[in-house]
Amino acid sequence: MKMSEGVEWAVHCCTVLAHLPAGLGLPAARLAEFHGVPPTYLAKQLQQLSAAGIVTSSRGRRGGYRLARSPADVSLLDIVLAVDGAEPAFRCSEIRRRGPSQVEDRLYSPVCGIAAAMWRAESAWRKELSAVTVASLIGGMAADVPIDAVRKGAAWLQEVLR
Amino acid sequence: MKMSEGVEWAVHCCTVLAHLPAGLGLPAARLAEFHGVPPTYLAKQLQQLSAAGIVTSSRGRRGGYRLARSPADVSLLDIVLAVDGAEPAFRCSEIRRRGPSQVEDRLYSPVCGIAAAMWRAESAWRKELSAVTVASLIGGMAADVPIDAVRKGAAWLQEVLR
DNA sequence: GTCCCTATACTCGGATAGCAAGTGTCCGAGTATAGGCGG
DNA sequence: CCGCCTATACTCGGACACTTGCTATCCGAGTATAGGGAC
């Protein structure tokens, strides 16, 4: 089981977008440049974030992406579901109803015990992810990202937005 | 993000194997028949369970698979890791160290805050899975599986083991 | 000097190839059994 | 009648195609801006 590579990019992009001055947007090409990833592919993830209502886009000159909501209102779970898909990782194909031991459909319990256990675990996973927001990530970065990197990033942003 | 289809099969197989009389094995073909899945592909999952030390196999006539440990000592997590791979779903590619804001490697904290949050969530997921064992699954089934299905399954097992 | 218009350059969005991993299958290596043969 | 030996049938294990979905890319649709011209 592996998560799409684009999730990592999308989360990083959101933390960058959270630092934009209100009303301004940052083009996908700039975000790709900042993170050193293929611009054309990153565009795809940003489109999915846009479709999910996490970011808004504006076209044309001086256009780009910006957060659609407050950083505190965007959870890690929101981003993961937007980019990686919302359907659960475990899919029950109801094989318990096949083979020589099968009986009438109406006799089975609504959910298989194995699927229930799997979904309980996924629920715990989602709960942890929903407890983390872009705002809290940025808060953690303050004590985590090298001060020089912060400075260089801010300078770059200044340059690009001009 | 999706889990391998084989995980579901493997878990079901383990619950069946737990019902075998001590010392006897059940061939992959019989397990496939019981669950109504492709025999040749199920064999692959069983090989992985065998490699992980969850089941043991014996070749030749009257051979087959049986649980290597007590059902209470086989967790759902064991099976998932064996079949679906043990590496974490989220892989951090350290993109924070790329682009215009990069600084010397030694200045960065050992783990990226985003990766830490992701792995915390995965840890919660694994914790839930490790709390469920084949034994507890079987216990739950007692109240969950139609009595007629249990009876037919037991009869089929009797027939096959003869 | 001010307003308007047009051309331009820049942006996103969806449609389009390439590739890796999961899915599905097959045949060869190995072993316990069953039957036959000799004692 | 008993024990041994061989041939057999059945099992797992790894090597081999195929398909799906992720990865990566490109070109067309749309828009704000900048510059020039008219008033």
Model description:
2 copies of one chain form a homodimer. Chain A has 162 residues and is mainly alpha-helical. The first copy, chain A, contains 7 helices and 2 strands. Chain A has helices at 5-17, 28-35, 39-51, 76-84, 113-130, 134-142, 147-161; strands spanning 55-58, 64-67. A two-stranded antiparallel sheet of chain A has the order 1-2. In chain A, strand 1 (55-58) and strand 2 form a beta hairpin. In chain A, helix 1 crosses helix 3 (39-51), helix 1 (5-17) packs across helix 4 (76-84) and helix 2 crosses helix 3. The longest helix of chain A has 18 residues, at 113-130. Chain A is elongated and about 70 Å long. The model of chain A has no long low-confidence stretch (mean pLDDT 95). Chains A and B meet through helix 1, helix 2, helix 5, helix 6 and helix 7 of A and helix 1, helix 2, helix 5, helix 6 and helix 7 of B. Chain A binds a DNA duplex (39 and 39 nucleotides) through helix 3.
Give descriptors for this structure.
homodimer; 162 residues; mainly alpha; two-stranded antiparallel sheet; 5% strand; elongated; DNA-binding
Largest sheet of chain A: 2 strands, antiparallel
- What structural class do the secondary elements of chain A suggest? mainly alpha
| Helix percent band of chain A | 40-55%
Unreliable residue stretches of chain A: none
DSSP summary, beta strand count of chain A: 2
Order of helices and strands of chain A: HHHEEHHHH
Q: Whole-Å distance between the termini of chain A?
A: 43 Å
The chain-level mean pLDDT of chain A equals 95
Number of helices of chain A: 7
- Overall geometry of chain A comes to elongated
Oligomer, anyone? homodimer
Strand portion of chain A, in percent? under 5%
